[in-house]
Amino acid sequence: MRLALSTALAALVSFGSVAFAQQDTKDLTQLLQSNKNLSEFTTLLTSYGDIYANLSFQSDVTILAPDNDAFNKIPYSTLGPAFEANQSQIVRSVLQYHVLPGLHPSTSYNGTFSFDKTWLQNTSYTNVTGGQMVGGVQQSGPVNIFTSGVGSRSTLVTPDLRFTGGIVHVIDTFLIPPQTFIQTVPQFNLTAAGGAVENAYV
Predict the structure, then answer these.
(1) Smallest Cα–Cα separation from 172: which of 38, 51, 46, 48?
(2) In what order do the strands lie in the sheet with 143-147?
(3) Is the dihedral of CA 157, 158, 160, 165 positive or negative?
(4) pLDDT tens-digit profile of 43-93?
(5) pTM for the whole structure
(6) Beta bridge partners of 153
(7) Quick check: 157 and 53 in contact, CB under 8 A?
(8) For position 190, what pLDDT does the model report?
(9) Dist. CA 197–CA 202, nearest whole Å
(10) In sequence order, what are the residues at sequence separation of 6 or more whose Cβ sits closer than 8 angstroms to the Cβ of residue 12?
């Protein structure tokens, strides 16, 4: 009798702890609103209602959320003209490139690069590793670094913000989506090589 009572009490405590933990975890909207350094990202994300709604109902997803300082860097990056002109297709692709299916906590990264798929499935964007992927690695410090298909780098500044659908990592720079070789060439000052390749397919 005493054993059965102890077992029942332990089960009740365990259930209560799980229920409290679930209740204490914010949904995506609550998490974004509670982090003032993500106010610019929140405004951008909510302006693309379909992506935002989809994220709100996801489970096991990882979001790389650029902080407000990252938005200040946009005019000085190759993304500047697209954001300034509000080219929605490009901005949409950038947002999708910052969403990783599955849970990728900061502790899952080590000194060896891992490449994770993203929500960016637009075939206009590709790279030599198959396209639509983000690289992650832990450097000394420890500092987690994310890289894009064109070599842009971003540092993880606030890791593992949990919400009901997964994890948000706050990063300090936008990752530039991978592109076709011809589109990427001017960024690396290889226009002559790009022209040669383009002419080969004419």
Answers:
(1) 38
(2) 99-101, 61-66, 166-171, 153-163, 143-147, 133-139, 114-117
(3) negative
(4) 999 999 999 999 999 999 999 999 999 999 999 999 999 999 999 999 999
(5) 0.77
(6) 147
(7) no
(8) 35
(9) 9
(10) none
